[in-house]
Amino acid sequence: MAVVVPFESPRPAGLNRLVDLVAADMERVNATILARTGSEVTMIPEVANHLIASGGKRLRPMLTLAMAKLAGYSGDGHIKLAAAVEFMHTATLLHDDVVDESDMRRGKLAARMVWGNEASVLVGDFLLGQAFKMMVEVGNLHALDILSSAAAVIAEGEVMQLGTANNTATNEDEYLAVIRAKTAELFAAACEVGPALANKEKAEQAACRSFGMNLGIAFQLVDDALDYGGKSAKLGKNVGDDFREGKITLPVVLSFRRGTESERAFWNRTLVEGKVEDGDLDAAMAMMAKHHAIEDTLGRARHYGAIAKDALALAPDSPIKQALEEAVDFSIARAH
Amino acid sequence: MAVVVPFESPRPAGLNRLVDLVAADMERVNATILARTGSEVTMIPEVANHLIASGGKRLRPMLTLAMAKLAGYSGDGHIKLAAAVEFMHTATLLHDDVVDESDMRRGKLAARMVWGNEASVLVGDFLLGQAFKMMVEVGNLHALDILSSAAAVIAEGEVMQLGTANNTATNEDEYLAVIRAKTAELFAAACEVGPALANKEKAEQAACRSFGMNLGIAFQLVDDALDYGGKSAKLGKNVGDDFREGKITLPVVLSFRRGTESERAFWNRTLVEGKVEDGDLDAAMAMMAKHHAIEDTLGRARHYGAIAKDALALAPDSPIKQALEEAVDFSIARAH
């Protein structure tokens, strides 16, 4: 279906510019991904490609490619590092679905529903192993340090999330610590390895890392808002998934804290005790509207988006810089 | 309880010599392990130490230390690499217990029974991430290559095992391919990084790798024999675990292939259909005795043990070489 955008629209240009600018490199990344999921153990490419081929935006590897370009890197290492970043992300998704007992992922049955939890855990491990192999092949110790540290932080964030799951006492800072670790850290690492490969100065690497970190936080905040409807339907994931899984995201944190006694009893019944009845999702969304929880979650996202853009401010103007700024706008505009 | 060994016994000296020779280094490895399981997310040290502190022999990190010594390595890198090897092993155990739905590990409740499958998957990921961080800190690209390749092969072997699980048609070669990948590869990598750190010649690295690979195969074969009683009780694991989980190990492969029609029906009922009745384990062990399946499994183990020892034959005689040879004898003698 075509989407008609009136030409005077203030809508951001979306991801088009970024997609176009890294298209040639991305083709090589895709070929690498395909080659590196190959195995004589046929279940490995089956499970891996079920998820990898199912239409993720590949935003994270695009960021690695874009940052390498921004840094003027002229080698080949960014291709394998971008593929490694996507493998790390895919491994996390496979393990997440097992941990969350999710049925669906990107609008398809989750891999664990087709091949079982066993295969999801082990193919995730395989992809992590392949990711590290590719990083080692690139041979840049600084990039290795960035990505291996990220792997540990991401796992730490996932464990941390177990502690906040179904816990309505979670506050905004605790929520933020979780999404920094489990989502934003990979965005940050994906961005930082570009200038690291190009041996750029520390300040420049820190700027790229900050861009990724804040974009990642904004991205996750918008994701969490979209799970309660945002202002439009969300592709590939169903409204209410987080609610049914008892996930404590910022819209819930804000609604719980701003709610009445009886509203807090509602959140405890549905998210802590897991007793969800017909109409509860609508009731939850009504409370969020009453307390401006979605609105304020998106406001927080805009805050981090602005930090991301300012992080790149010292870089000279260029098409790739413009494309990265537009990627921030796109990540936030998904909610409208 | 003290074990009384008559002094004229032909029993191998066991692991004592190896343990003594690497004791000083091992203390540093243990301190590193403790420091690296630390996290503000309290569940991480809890889960990690539940398993790490529960009395594994730490044979794999001992091999890394011993091979570094054999190679005359004088740096510090072997400490972190040995800790990384133990973390990779522990991560595999955590994930294995989830995949196998095991209740017990090393004579204690499996971590997943105490903290849940979620924590076992995610703390495993955390340990893998920490393992890679430590390797990167050592900064030797060759060692990184060896260990990251091993991580991918191990995961591949685990997925391969999903295909042989509950499949009585598995033959000895297929079984061997699985244990090479899932067990012996880490032994091989643990041994190979020692001479790699010391920049030894290719032939010497290959010899150490071959020692580890064949010791690992022998070790797993004996483990699989012990699960059906071997000739004595096995520490920390219960006789019959593999049987109850429907695992296809060499004792089963041999018994199935050498069995009568009605015996094969027995194996298919118990291992494929999972219908296990009282007395079935005894019946299984009786069939194994009839077909010399345990005896021949241990014979295969001695075969690989001999290859392991010959792999080290060109190394000049030294206490550490003797200790490594005794480790092979020990691994096999566990069955007697």
TrEMBL record, chains A, B:
InterPro entries: Isoprenoid_synthase_dom_sf, Polyprenyl_synt, Polyprenyl_synt_CS
Domain of life: Bacteria
SUPFAM superfamilies given in the database record: Terpenoid synthases (SSF48576)
GO molecular function (one): metal ion binding
Gene3D superfamilies per record: Farnesyl Diphosphate Synthase
BP GO terms, sorted: isoprenoid biosynthetic process
Cross-referenced Pfam families: polyprenyl_synt
PROSITE patterns for the chain: POLYPRENYL_SYNTHASE_1 (PS00723)
Cofactor field: Mg(2+)
Keyword annotations from UniProtKB, A to Z: Magnesium, Metal-binding, Transferase
Similarity comment text for this entry: Belongs to the FPP/GGPP synthase family.
Name of this chain's protein: Polyprenyl synthetase family protein
